[in-house]
Predict the 3D structure of the following.
Amino acid sequence: MCILAYRLPVDDKMKYILVTGGVISGIGKGVIASSVGTLLKSYGIRVTSIKIDPYINIDAGTFSPYEHGEVFVLDDGGEVDLDLGNYERFLDIKLHRDNNITTGKIYQHVINKERRGDYLGKTVQVVPHITDAIQEWVERVANIPVNGDQQRPDVCIIELGGTIGDIEGMPFVEAFRQFQFRVKKENFCCIHVSLIPQPRTTGEHKTKPTQASVREMRGLGLSPDLIFCRSVNPINNSVKDKISLFCHVPPEQVICVHDVSSIYRVPVLLEDQGLGHFFIKQLQLTHFSPGPKKLMARWRELANRYERLIDEVTIALVGKYTELEDAYISVVKALKHSALAVNHRLNLTLIEAADLEPERLNDGPSKYHTAWHQLVSAQGILVPGGFGIRGTEGKILACQWAREKKIPYLGVCLGLQCAVIEFARNVLKKKDAHSTEFRPETTNPVVIEMPEHNTGVMGGTMRLGKRKTLFTTQESSLRKLYLGVDYVEERHRHRYEVNPKFVDLFESHGMKFVGRSEDGERMEIMELSDHPYFVGVQYHPEYISRPLKPSCPYLGLLLASCGKLTSYLSRGCRLSPQMYLEEPQDDTSDEELSALDQNGAAIAKPVLLDAPE
Protein backbone atom coordinates (compact mmCIF):
# COMPACT_ATOMS: atom_id res chain seq x y z
CA MET A 1 0.00 0.00 0.00
CA CYS A 2 1.78 3.12 -1.16
CA ILE A 3 1.45 6.55 0.39
CA LEU A 4 -0.88 7.75 -2.36
CA ALA A 5 -3.52 5.50 -0.81
CA TYR A 6 -3.77 8.14 1.92
CA ARG A 7 -4.46 10.92 -0.58
CA LEU A 8 -8.00 12.30 -0.52
CA PRO A 9 -9.63 14.61 -3.12
CA VAL A 10 -7.58 17.78 -3.34
CA ASP A 11 -8.39 21.47 -3.15
CA ASP A 12 -8.04 22.98 -6.63
CA LYS A 13 -6.13 26.01 -5.34
CA MET A 14 -2.37 25.99 -5.67
CA LYS A 15 -0.39 26.47 -2.47
CA TYR A 16 2.80 28.52 -2.49
CA ILE A 17 5.82 28.50 -0.17
CA LEU A 18 8.27 31.37 -0.61
CA VAL A 19 11.80 30.84 0.70
CA THR A 20 13.89 33.99 1.24
CA GLY A 21 17.33 34.51 2.75
CA GLY A 22 18.90 37.01 5.09
CA VAL A 23 22.28 38.19 6.38
CA ILE A 24 24.47 36.32 3.86
CA SER A 25 24.09 34.50 0.56
CA GLY A 26 24.98 30.83 0.21
CA ILE A 27 23.25 30.05 3.48
CA GLY A 28 21.59 26.88 2.21
CA LYS A 29 18.21 28.07 0.94
CA GLY A 30 18.33 25.55 -1.90
CA VAL A 31 18.85 22.55 0.37
CA ILE A 32 16.20 23.83 2.79
CA ALA A 33 13.68 24.43 0.00
CA SER A 34 14.39 20.94 -1.37
CA SER A 35 14.08 19.41 2.10
CA VAL A 36 10.72 21.13 2.69
CA GLY A 37 9.56 19.68 -0.62
CA THR A 38 10.76 16.22 0.39
CA LEU A 39 8.88 16.53 3.67
CA LEU A 40 5.67 17.50 1.89
CA LYS A 41 6.13 14.73 -0.65
CA SER A 42 6.32 12.21 2.18
CA TYR A 43 2.70 13.14 2.96
CA GLY A 44 1.65 12.31 -0.59
CA ILE A 45 1.61 15.96 -1.66
CA ARG A 46 2.70 16.71 -5.22
CA VAL A 47 5.45 19.33 -5.21
CA THR A 48 7.11 21.55 -7.79
CA SER A 49 9.81 24.21 -7.42
CA ILE A 50 10.80 27.55 -8.90
CA LYS A 51 14.18 29.23 -8.49
CA ILE A 52 14.40 33.00 -8.94
CA ASP A 53 17.79 34.50 -9.78
CA PRO A 54 17.81 38.31 -9.79
CA TYR A 55 20.72 38.62 -12.25
CA ILE A 56 20.09 40.14 -15.71
CA ASN A 57 21.47 37.16 -17.65
CA ILE A 58 18.76 35.31 -19.56
CA ASP A 59 20.00 32.00 -18.16
CA ALA A 60 23.08 30.39 -16.63
CA GLY A 61 24.44 29.07 -19.94
CA THR A 62 27.14 31.71 -20.46
CA PHE A 63 28.46 31.73 -16.89
CA SER A 64 31.97 30.66 -16.00
CA PRO A 65 31.72 27.95 -13.32
CA TYR A 66 33.79 30.22 -11.08
CA GLU A 67 31.13 32.91 -11.46
CA HIS A 68 28.04 31.04 -10.35
CA GLY A 69 28.97 27.38 -9.94
CA GLU A 70 27.77 24.60 -12.19
CA VAL A 71 25.41 25.10 -15.11
CA PHE A 72 22.63 22.53 -14.65
CA VAL A 73 20.89 21.20 -17.78
CA LEU A 74 17.27 20.06 -17.89
CA ASP A 75 15.46 17.61 -20.18
CA ASP A 76 14.22 20.44 -22.41
CA GLY A 77 17.75 21.83 -22.81
CA GLY A 78 17.32 24.66 -20.34
CA GLU A 79 20.63 25.83 -18.84
CA VAL A 80 19.70 26.83 -15.32
CA ASP A 81 20.93 27.52 -11.80
CA LEU A 82 22.49 24.64 -9.88
CA ASP A 83 19.76 24.82 -7.22
CA LEU A 84 17.34 23.26 -9.71
CA GLY A 85 19.62 20.24 -9.55
CA ASN A 86 19.02 20.12 -5.79
CA TYR A 87 15.26 20.18 -6.38
CA GLU A 88 15.37 17.41 -8.95
CA ARG A 89 17.65 15.21 -6.84
CA PHE A 90 15.66 15.61 -3.62
CA LEU A 91 12.17 15.49 -5.11
CA ASP A 92 12.86 13.09 -8.01
CA ILE A 93 11.02 15.37 -10.44
CA LYS A 94 11.80 16.79 -13.89
CA LEU A 95 11.66 20.56 -14.08
CA HIS A 96 11.52 22.83 -17.11
CA ARG A 97 13.52 25.87 -18.24
CA ASP A 98 10.72 28.18 -17.08
CA ASN A 99 11.14 26.88 -13.53
CA ASN A 100 14.21 29.14 -13.42
CA ILE A 101 13.21 32.82 -13.48
CA THR A 102 15.82 35.53 -14.01
CA THR A 103 15.52 39.30 -14.20
CA GLY A 104 16.70 38.99 -17.79
CA LYS A 105 13.86 36.63 -18.70
CA ILE A 106 11.24 38.86 -17.09
CA TYR A 107 12.47 42.07 -18.70
CA GLN A 108 12.85 40.36 -22.07
CA HIS A 109 9.27 39.10 -21.79
CA VAL A 110 7.91 42.55 -20.88
CA ILE A 111 9.93 44.35 -23.57
CA ASN A 112 8.73 41.89 -26.22
CA LYS A 113 5.13 42.61 -25.18
CA GLU A 114 5.79 46.34 -25.34
CA ARG A 115 7.24 46.01 -28.86
CA ARG A 116 4.12 44.12 -29.96
CA GLY A 117 1.94 46.90 -28.60
CA ASP A 118 0.32 44.75 -25.92
CA TYR A 119 0.34 47.63 -23.42
CA LEU A 120 -1.70 49.90 -25.75
CA GLY A 121 0.64 52.88 -25.51
CA LYS A 122 0.91 52.94 -21.72
CA THR A 123 4.12 53.82 -19.91
CA VAL A 124 5.77 50.49 -19.04
CA GLN A 125 7.02 50.49 -15.44
CA VAL A 126 8.42 48.15 -12.81
CA VAL A 127 5.08 48.44 -11.00
CA PRO A 128 2.74 47.12 -12.25
CA HIS A 129 4.14 45.63 -15.46
CA ILE A 130 7.29 43.87 -14.20
CA THR A 131 5.66 42.77 -10.95
CA ASP A 132 2.58 41.51 -12.79
CA ALA A 133 4.78 39.56 -15.21
CA ILE A 134 6.54 37.89 -12.27
CA GLN A 135 3.27 36.87 -10.65
CA GLU A 136 1.78 35.58 -13.90
CA TRP A 137 4.95 33.60 -14.64
CA VAL A 138 4.89 31.96 -11.19
CA GLU A 139 1.21 31.02 -11.46
CA ARG A 140 1.67 29.57 -14.94
CA VAL A 141 4.77 27.50 -14.13
CA ALA A 142 3.42 26.26 -10.79
CA ASN A 143 0.70 24.34 -12.60
CA ILE A 144 3.00 22.47 -15.01
CA PRO A 145 3.26 18.72 -14.18
CA VAL A 146 6.75 17.62 -13.15
CA ASN A 147 6.26 13.97 -12.15
CA GLY A 148 6.16 12.49 -15.62
CA ASP A 149 2.36 12.44 -15.65
CA GLN A 150 -0.36 14.97 -16.39
CA GLN A 151 -1.33 15.69 -12.79
CA ARG A 152 -0.58 19.22 -11.68
CA PRO A 153 1.31 19.83 -8.43
CA ASP A 154 -0.40 20.76 -5.17
CA VAL A 155 2.37 22.95 -3.73
CA CYS A 156 4.93 25.19 -5.41
CA ILE A 157 8.10 26.05 -3.48
CA ILE A 158 9.72 29.28 -4.69
CA GLU A 159 13.28 30.14 -3.74
CA LEU A 160 14.20 33.82 -4.09
CA GLY A 161 17.94 34.04 -4.71
CA GLY A 162 20.19 36.52 -2.93
CA THR A 163 19.30 38.18 0.35
CA ILE A 164 16.55 40.52 1.45
CA GLY A 165 17.67 44.07 0.77
CA ASP A 166 19.62 43.36 -2.42
CA ILE A 167 18.72 46.08 -4.91
CA GLU A 168 18.36 43.67 -7.82
CA GLY A 169 15.83 41.59 -5.88
CA MET A 170 13.48 44.48 -5.03
CA PRO A 171 11.03 43.94 -7.94
CA PHE A 172 10.60 40.30 -6.89
CA VAL A 173 10.01 41.18 -3.24
CA GLU A 174 7.38 43.71 -4.30
CA ALA A 175 5.81 41.13 -6.62
CA PHE A 176 5.42 38.67 -3.75
CA ARG A 177 4.11 41.37 -1.44
CA GLN A 178 1.26 41.71 -3.93
CA PHE A 179 1.14 37.97 -4.64
CA GLN A 180 0.24 37.01 -1.06
CA PHE A 181 -3.03 38.96 -1.42
CA ARG A 182 -3.60 37.74 -4.97
CA VAL A 183 -3.62 34.07 -3.94
CA LYS A 184 -5.01 34.64 -0.38
CA LYS A 185 -3.18 34.09 2.89
CA GLU A 186 -4.36 30.49 3.36
CA ASN A 187 -2.53 29.57 0.15
CA PHE A 188 0.74 31.36 0.88
CA CYS A 189 3.51 30.68 3.38
CA CYS A 190 6.78 32.58 3.77
CA ILE A 191 10.01 31.05 5.10
CA HIS A 192 12.96 33.26 5.97
CA VAL A 193 16.35 31.55 6.27
CA SER A 194 18.81 33.53 8.36
CA LEU A 195 22.27 33.09 9.83
CA ILE A 196 22.68 32.84 13.60
CA PRO A 197 26.41 33.43 14.16
CA GLN A 198 28.23 32.12 17.21
CA PRO A 199 31.43 34.15 17.76
CA ARG A 200 34.25 32.19 19.36
CA THR A 201 34.98 35.00 21.79
CA THR A 202 31.64 34.61 23.59
CA GLY A 203 30.30 31.27 22.38
CA GLU A 204 26.79 32.75 22.35
CA HIS A 205 24.36 32.65 19.47
CA LYS A 206 23.73 36.19 18.21
CA THR A 207 20.26 37.08 16.96
CA LYS A 208 20.78 40.74 15.97
CA PRO A 209 21.54 40.00 12.27
CA THR A 210 18.32 38.00 12.01
CA GLN A 211 16.34 40.70 13.76
CA ALA A 212 17.65 43.30 11.30
CA SER A 213 16.94 41.08 8.30
CA VAL A 214 13.36 40.33 9.37
CA ARG A 215 12.78 44.01 10.21
CA GLU A 216 13.82 44.96 6.68
CA MET A 217 11.71 42.20 5.18
CA ARG A 218 8.63 43.31 7.10
CA GLY A 219 9.30 46.89 6.03
CA LEU A 220 9.05 45.70 2.43
CA GLY A 221 5.65 44.14 3.10
CA LEU A 222 6.48 40.46 3.71
CA SER A 223 6.23 38.82 7.13
CA PRO A 224 7.79 35.38 7.62
CA ASP A 225 5.60 32.58 8.91
CA LEU A 226 8.67 30.51 9.71
CA ILE A 227 12.23 31.55 10.54
CA PHE A 228 14.84 28.90 9.77
CA CYS A 229 17.92 29.54 11.89
CA ARG A 230 21.13 28.38 10.21
CA SER A 231 23.88 27.81 12.73
CA VAL A 232 26.89 25.63 13.33
CA ASN A 233 25.47 24.21 16.56
CA PRO A 234 21.84 23.72 17.68
CA ILE A 235 20.22 26.79 19.19
CA ASN A 236 18.47 26.54 22.55
CA ASN A 237 14.98 27.63 23.56
CA SER A 238 16.14 30.97 24.97
CA VAL A 239 17.50 31.93 21.54
CA LYS A 240 14.25 30.84 19.92
CA ASP A 241 12.27 32.91 22.42
CA LYS A 242 14.37 35.97 21.71
CA ILE A 243 13.92 35.62 17.94
CA SER A 244 10.21 35.07 18.49
CA LEU A 245 9.92 38.21 20.61
CA PHE A 246 11.68 40.52 18.17
CA CYS A 247 10.60 38.94 14.87
CA HIS A 248 6.86 38.53 15.48
CA VAL A 249 6.61 34.73 15.11
CA PRO A 250 5.62 32.11 17.71
CA PRO A 251 8.58 30.22 19.26
CA GLU A 252 7.44 26.93 17.72
CA GLN A 253 7.79 28.54 14.30
CA VAL A 254 11.46 29.32 14.87
CA ILE A 255 13.19 26.28 13.38
CA CYS A 256 16.74 25.19 14.08
CA VAL A 257 18.69 24.02 11.02
CA HIS A 258 22.20 23.51 12.35
CA ASP A 259 25.08 21.86 10.52
CA VAL A 260 24.53 18.11 10.22
CA SER A 261 26.59 15.16 9.02
CA SER A 262 25.04 15.17 5.54
CA ILE A 263 22.30 16.92 3.59
CA TYR A 264 20.33 13.66 3.74
CA ARG A 265 19.71 14.48 7.41
CA VAL A 266 17.99 17.83 6.71
CA PRO A 267 14.51 16.52 5.73
CA VAL A 268 14.57 14.30 8.81
CA LEU A 269 15.60 17.28 10.97
CA LEU A 270 12.60 19.26 9.72
CA GLU A 271 10.20 16.37 10.24
CA ASP A 272 11.43 15.88 13.81
CA GLN A 273 10.52 19.53 14.55
CA GLY A 274 6.93 19.03 13.40
CA LEU A 275 7.15 20.96 10.13
CA GLY A 276 4.95 18.51 8.26
CA HIS A 277 1.98 19.12 10.55
CA PHE A 278 2.62 22.88 10.45
CA PHE A 279 2.34 23.02 6.66
CA ILE A 280 -0.75 20.81 6.68
CA LYS A 281 -2.44 23.28 9.04
CA GLN A 282 -1.01 26.54 7.69
CA LEU A 283 -1.85 25.82 4.06
CA GLN A 284 -5.10 24.01 4.88
CA LEU A 285 -3.91 20.75 3.35
CA THR A 286 -6.08 18.75 5.70
CA HIS A 287 -7.27 16.55 2.83
CA PHE A 288 -3.85 14.87 3.05
CA SER A 289 -3.80 12.32 5.84
CA PRO A 290 -0.54 12.10 7.84
CA GLY A 291 -0.34 8.34 7.36
CA PRO A 292 2.88 6.28 7.46
CA LYS A 293 5.53 8.20 5.52
CA LYS A 294 7.61 5.61 3.70
CA LEU A 295 9.59 8.23 1.77
CA MET A 296 10.77 9.87 5.00
CA ALA A 297 11.74 6.46 6.34
CA ARG A 298 13.94 5.99 3.29
CA TRP A 299 15.64 9.34 3.89
CA ARG A 300 16.15 8.50 7.55
CA GLU A 301 17.74 5.20 6.63
CA LEU A 302 19.87 6.92 3.97
CA ALA A 303 21.16 9.41 6.54
CA ASN A 304 21.82 6.65 9.07
CA ARG A 305 23.72 4.55 6.53
CA TYR A 306 25.85 7.52 5.50
CA GLU A 307 26.91 8.08 9.10
CA ARG A 308 27.77 4.38 9.59
CA LEU A 309 30.12 4.10 6.60
CA ILE A 310 33.61 2.91 7.52
CA ASP A 311 35.40 1.88 4.32
CA GLU A 312 36.66 4.59 1.98
CA VAL A 313 37.11 4.75 -1.77
CA THR A 314 39.40 7.39 -3.29
CA ILE A 315 38.37 8.98 -6.58
CA ALA A 316 40.49 11.57 -8.37
CA LEU A 317 38.50 14.24 -10.20
CA VAL A 318 40.79 15.84 -12.79
CA GLY A 319 39.28 19.16 -13.79
CA LYS A 320 40.02 22.82 -14.42
CA TYR A 321 37.63 24.50 -11.97
CA THR A 322 38.78 22.65 -8.87
CA GLU A 323 39.08 25.75 -6.67
CA LEU A 324 35.27 25.82 -6.41
CA GLU A 325 33.56 22.52 -5.67
CA ASP A 326 30.19 23.97 -6.76
CA ALA A 327 31.59 24.01 -10.30
CA TYR A 328 31.20 20.20 -10.27
CA ILE A 329 28.35 19.88 -7.79
CA SER A 330 26.26 17.40 -9.82
CA VAL A 331 29.37 15.29 -10.51
CA VAL A 332 30.25 15.26 -6.81
CA LYS A 333 26.67 14.38 -5.86
CA ALA A 334 26.59 11.53 -8.38
CA LEU A 335 29.84 10.16 -6.95
CA LYS A 336 28.45 10.39 -3.42
CA HIS A 337 25.20 8.67 -4.42
CA SER A 338 27.14 5.79 -5.95
CA ALA A 339 29.65 5.57 -3.10
CA LEU A 340 26.80 5.33 -0.62
CA ALA A 341 25.19 2.64 -2.75
CA VAL A 342 28.31 0.49 -2.51
CA ASN A 343 28.65 1.20 1.22
CA HIS A 344 31.81 3.29 1.03
CA ARG A 345 32.60 6.80 2.14
CA LEU A 346 33.78 8.91 -0.78
CA ASN A 347 37.25 10.37 -0.46
CA LEU A 348 37.25 12.83 -3.34
CA THR A 349 40.56 14.29 -4.51
CA LEU A 350 40.24 17.37 -6.71
CA ILE A 351 43.23 17.68 -9.04
CA GLU A 352 43.86 20.76 -11.16
CA ALA A 353 44.46 19.30 -14.62
CA ALA A 354 47.14 21.83 -15.53
CA ASP A 355 49.21 20.67 -12.52
CA LEU A 356 49.75 17.30 -14.25
CA GLU A 357 51.43 18.90 -17.26
CA PRO A 358 55.27 18.93 -17.39
CA GLU A 359 55.20 22.69 -18.00
CA ARG A 360 54.08 23.07 -14.40
CA LEU A 361 57.63 22.21 -13.35
CA ASN A 362 58.65 25.67 -14.54
CA ASP A 363 56.62 27.10 -11.67
CA GLY A 364 58.32 24.81 -9.15
CA PRO A 365 58.02 21.04 -8.67
CA SER A 366 55.68 21.10 -5.68
CA LYS A 367 52.31 21.34 -7.44
CA TYR A 368 53.38 18.95 -10.21
CA HIS A 369 54.57 16.19 -7.90
CA THR A 370 51.64 16.64 -5.51
CA ALA A 371 49.14 16.33 -8.37
CA TRP A 372 50.77 13.17 -9.70
CA HIS A 373 50.99 11.65 -6.23
CA GLN A 374 47.25 12.23 -5.81
CA LEU A 375 46.51 10.73 -9.22
CA VAL A 376 48.55 7.56 -8.77
CA SER A 377 47.08 7.06 -5.26
CA ALA A 378 43.48 7.08 -6.51
CA GLN A 379 41.42 3.93 -6.91
CA GLY A 380 39.39 5.50 -9.72
CA ILE A 381 39.75 8.49 -12.04
CA LEU A 382 37.07 10.82 -13.37
CA VAL A 383 37.54 13.50 -16.03
CA PRO A 384 34.40 15.70 -16.23
CA GLY A 385 33.22 18.14 -18.88
CA GLY A 386 34.63 21.57 -19.53
CA PHE A 387 35.52 24.16 -22.14
CA GLY A 388 38.76 25.78 -23.25
CA ILE A 389 42.29 24.50 -23.80
CA ARG A 390 43.67 25.17 -20.32
CA GLY A 391 44.41 21.87 -18.57
CA THR A 392 43.50 19.72 -21.58
CA GLU A 393 46.93 18.08 -21.82
CA GLY A 394 46.76 17.25 -18.11
CA LYS A 395 43.43 15.52 -18.65
CA ILE A 396 44.90 13.56 -21.55
CA LEU A 397 47.79 12.44 -19.33
CA ALA A 398 45.28 11.29 -16.69
CA CYS A 399 43.50 9.24 -19.38
CA GLN A 400 46.79 7.65 -20.38
CA TRP A 401 47.60 6.71 -16.79
CA ALA A 402 44.18 5.14 -16.28
CA ARG A 403 44.35 3.21 -19.56
CA GLU A 404 47.88 1.88 -19.17
CA LYS A 405 47.69 1.09 -15.45
CA LYS A 406 44.19 -0.45 -15.67
CA ILE A 407 42.73 2.08 -13.23
CA PRO A 408 38.91 2.40 -13.42
CA TYR A 409 38.10 5.48 -15.49
CA LEU A 410 35.01 7.49 -16.38
CA GLY A 411 35.17 10.32 -18.89
CA VAL A 412 32.18 12.65 -19.18
CA CYS A 413 31.72 14.83 -22.28
CA LEU A 414 35.21 16.37 -22.66
CA GLY A 415 36.46 13.43 -20.61
CA LEU A 416 35.35 11.11 -23.43
CA GLN A 417 37.00 13.35 -26.03
CA CYS A 418 40.29 13.47 -24.09
CA ALA A 419 40.32 9.67 -23.87
CA VAL A 420 39.82 9.46 -27.64
CA ILE A 421 42.67 11.93 -28.27
CA GLU A 422 45.01 10.03 -25.94
CA PHE A 423 44.18 6.71 -27.61
CA ALA A 424 44.78 8.16 -31.07
CA ARG A 425 48.16 9.55 -30.04
CA ASN A 426 49.55 6.61 -28.10
CA VAL A 427 47.84 3.54 -29.60
CA LEU A 428 47.13 4.65 -33.15
CA LYS A 429 50.44 6.60 -33.20
CA LYS A 430 48.86 9.76 -34.59
CA LYS A 431 50.98 12.12 -32.55
CA ASP A 432 49.25 15.34 -33.60
CA ALA A 433 45.74 13.99 -32.95
CA HIS A 434 43.60 16.63 -31.28
CA SER A 435 40.23 18.35 -31.13
CA THR A 436 39.54 21.18 -33.55
CA GLU A 437 38.32 23.10 -30.50
CA PHE A 438 41.90 23.33 -29.29
CA ARG A 439 44.00 22.89 -32.44
CA PRO A 440 42.07 23.64 -35.64
CA GLU A 441 45.13 22.99 -37.82
CA THR A 442 45.63 19.34 -36.71
CA THR A 443 45.96 16.78 -39.51
CA ASN A 444 44.18 14.19 -37.36
CA PRO A 445 41.00 15.86 -36.09
CA VAL A 446 39.61 13.00 -34.02
CA VAL A 447 37.19 15.41 -32.31
CA ILE A 448 35.32 17.90 -34.47
CA GLU A 449 32.76 20.66 -34.18
CA MET A 450 29.06 20.17 -34.84
CA PRO A 451 28.34 23.21 -37.06
CA GLU A 452 24.56 23.03 -36.74
CA HIS A 453 24.89 23.60 -32.99
CA ASN A 454 27.11 26.67 -33.24
CA THR A 455 25.28 29.69 -34.64
CA GLY A 456 27.89 32.19 -33.52
CA VAL A 457 25.63 33.42 -30.70
CA MET A 458 26.59 32.69 -27.11
CA GLY A 459 24.03 30.83 -24.99
CA GLY A 460 21.76 27.93 -25.90
CA THR A 461 23.63 27.06 -29.12
CA MET A 462 25.01 23.65 -28.12
CA ARG A 463 23.49 20.21 -28.34
CA LEU A 464 21.40 20.49 -25.21
CA GLY A 465 18.90 18.45 -23.27
CA LYS A 466 17.60 14.89 -23.31
CA ARG A 467 18.64 12.71 -26.26
CA LYS A 468 18.31 9.02 -26.99
CA THR A 469 21.38 6.77 -27.13
CA LEU A 470 21.06 3.32 -28.74
CA PHE A 471 23.26 0.44 -27.64
CA THR A 472 24.91 -1.31 -30.58
CA THR A 473 26.06 -4.50 -28.85
CA GLN A 474 25.18 -6.81 -25.99
CA GLU A 475 28.86 -6.99 -24.97
CA SER A 476 28.89 -3.80 -22.96
CA SER A 477 29.51 -3.32 -19.25
CA LEU A 478 27.53 -0.10 -19.27
CA ARG A 479 24.58 -1.73 -20.99
CA LYS A 480 24.55 -4.36 -18.23
CA LEU A 481 24.65 -1.59 -15.63
CA TYR A 482 21.62 -0.07 -17.35
CA LEU A 483 19.95 -3.48 -16.84
CA GLY A 484 20.21 -4.56 -20.47
CA VAL A 485 17.99 -1.87 -22.02
CA ASP A 486 18.13 -1.17 -25.76
CA TYR A 487 18.55 2.56 -25.29
CA VAL A 488 18.96 5.25 -22.65
CA GLU A 489 17.84 8.86 -22.55
CA GLU A 490 20.34 11.23 -20.96
CA ARG A 491 21.04 14.96 -20.98
CA HIS A 492 23.67 16.56 -23.19
CA ARG A 493 25.65 19.79 -23.26
CA HIS A 494 28.33 19.86 -25.94
CA ARG A 495 29.37 21.42 -29.23
CA TYR A 496 32.08 18.93 -30.28
CA GLU A 497 31.91 15.20 -31.05
CA VAL A 498 34.08 12.24 -32.01
CA ASN A 499 34.90 12.35 -35.71
CA PRO A 500 32.95 9.47 -37.35
CA LYS A 501 35.69 9.09 -40.00
CA PHE A 502 38.05 7.61 -37.39
CA VAL A 503 35.58 5.27 -35.68
CA ASP A 504 36.42 2.09 -37.66
CA LEU A 505 40.11 2.60 -36.94
CA PHE A 506 39.46 3.10 -33.24
CA GLU A 507 37.28 0.02 -33.00
CA SER A 508 39.77 -2.17 -34.84
CA HIS A 509 42.29 -1.37 -32.07
CA GLY A 510 39.96 -2.07 -29.13
CA MET A 511 38.19 1.22 -28.45
CA LYS A 512 34.53 0.29 -28.93
CA PHE A 513 31.72 2.81 -29.41
CA VAL A 514 28.91 0.75 -27.90
CA GLY A 515 26.33 3.53 -27.82
CA ARG A 516 25.39 5.88 -30.65
CA SER A 517 22.77 8.50 -31.46
CA GLU A 518 19.57 7.44 -33.19
CA ASP A 519 20.99 8.28 -36.63
CA GLY A 520 24.17 6.36 -35.82
CA GLU A 521 26.39 9.34 -36.61
CA ARG A 522 27.28 10.51 -33.11
CA MET A 523 29.40 8.46 -30.71
CA GLU A 524 27.73 8.50 -27.30
CA ILE A 525 29.35 5.70 -25.26
CA MET A 526 32.91 4.38 -25.49
CA GLU A 527 34.41 1.35 -23.75
CA LEU A 528 37.88 -0.15 -23.92
CA SER A 529 38.36 -3.84 -24.43
CA ASP A 530 40.63 -5.61 -21.95
CA HIS A 531 40.17 -3.07 -19.16
CA PRO A 532 38.34 -3.43 -15.81
CA TYR A 533 36.32 -0.25 -16.45
CA PHE A 534 37.32 2.39 -18.98
CA VAL A 535 34.16 4.20 -20.06
CA GLY A 536 33.47 7.51 -21.74
CA VAL A 537 30.07 9.08 -22.31
CA GLN A 538 29.28 12.13 -24.40
CA TYR A 539 26.24 12.96 -22.26
CA HIS A 540 26.16 14.10 -18.63
CA PRO A 541 24.72 11.24 -16.56
CA GLU A 542 25.24 13.18 -13.32
CA TYR A 543 22.26 15.41 -14.10
CA ILE A 544 19.73 12.64 -13.43
CA SER A 545 21.52 10.88 -10.56
CA ARG A 546 19.41 10.66 -7.40
CA PRO A 547 20.31 9.79 -3.80
CA LEU A 548 18.11 6.71 -4.03
CA LYS A 549 18.81 6.02 -7.74
CA PRO A 550 22.51 6.44 -8.52
CA SER A 551 23.62 7.09 -12.09
CA CYS A 552 24.75 3.90 -13.85
CA PRO A 553 28.06 5.16 -15.32
CA TYR A 554 29.07 6.61 -11.94
CA LEU A 555 27.91 3.49 -10.15
CA GLY A 556 30.08 1.42 -12.48
CA LEU A 557 33.10 3.59 -11.68
CA LEU A 558 32.60 3.20 -7.92
CA LEU A 559 31.95 -0.54 -8.17
CA ALA A 560 35.08 -1.06 -10.24
CA SER A 561 37.12 1.16 -7.90
CA CYS A 562 36.00 -0.96 -4.93
CA GLY A 563 36.65 -4.23 -6.78
CA LYS A 564 32.97 -5.15 -6.80
CA LEU A 565 31.86 -4.66 -10.40
CA THR A 566 32.14 -8.30 -11.45
CA SER A 567 30.25 -9.60 -8.41
CA TYR A 568 27.58 -6.91 -8.85
CA LEU A 569 26.96 -7.86 -12.46
CA SER A 570 26.95 -11.57 -11.62
CA ARG A 571 24.27 -10.96 -8.96
CA GLY A 572 21.91 -9.50 -11.52
CA CYS A 573 22.64 -5.88 -10.58
CA ARG A 574 21.07 -5.96 -7.13
CA LEU A 575 21.77 -2.92 -5.02
CA SER A 576 20.41 -1.82 -1.67
CA PRO A 577 19.14 1.70 -2.53
CA GLN A 578 16.84 0.21 -5.16
CA MET A 579 15.22 -1.79 -2.38
CA TYR A 580 14.18 1.52 -0.84
CA LEU A 581 12.79 2.76 -4.13
CA GLU A 582 10.25 -0.01 -4.42
CA GLU A 583 6.76 0.90 -3.34
CA PRO A 584 5.30 -1.33 -0.60
CA GLN A 585 3.16 -4.11 -1.94
CA ASP A 586 -0.61 -3.88 -1.63
CA ASP A 587 -0.61 -6.54 1.07
CA THR A 588 1.77 -4.54 3.28
CA SER A 589 -0.03 -3.91 6.55
CA ASP A 590 -0.53 -0.54 8.20
CA GLU A 591 1.49 -1.86 11.16
CA GLU A 592 4.44 -2.65 8.87
CA LEU A 593 4.23 0.80 7.26
CA SER A 594 4.08 2.43 10.69
CA ALA A 595 7.08 0.41 11.88
CA LEU A 596 8.92 1.38 8.71
CA ASP A 597 8.36 5.08 9.42
CA GLN A 598 9.27 4.85 13.09
CA ASN A 599 12.34 2.67 12.72
CA GLY A 600 13.69 4.24 9.54
CA ALA A 601 14.58 0.83 8.12
CA ALA A 602 13.59 -0.96 4.96
CA ILE A 603 11.03 -3.75 5.24
CA ALA A 604 13.12 -5.96 3.00
CA LYS A 605 16.67 -6.57 4.16
CA PRO A 606 18.95 -4.84 1.65
CA VAL A 607 21.53 -6.74 -0.34
CA LEU A 608 24.80 -5.10 0.65
CA LEU A 609 27.82 -5.37 -1.59
CA ASP A 610 30.39 -6.45 0.95
CA ALA A 611 31.68 -9.65 -0.64
CA PRO A 612 35.05 -9.56 -2.39
CA GLU A 613 35.26 -10.71 -5.97
Notes: The radius of gyration is 25 Å. The longest helix spans residues 126-142.
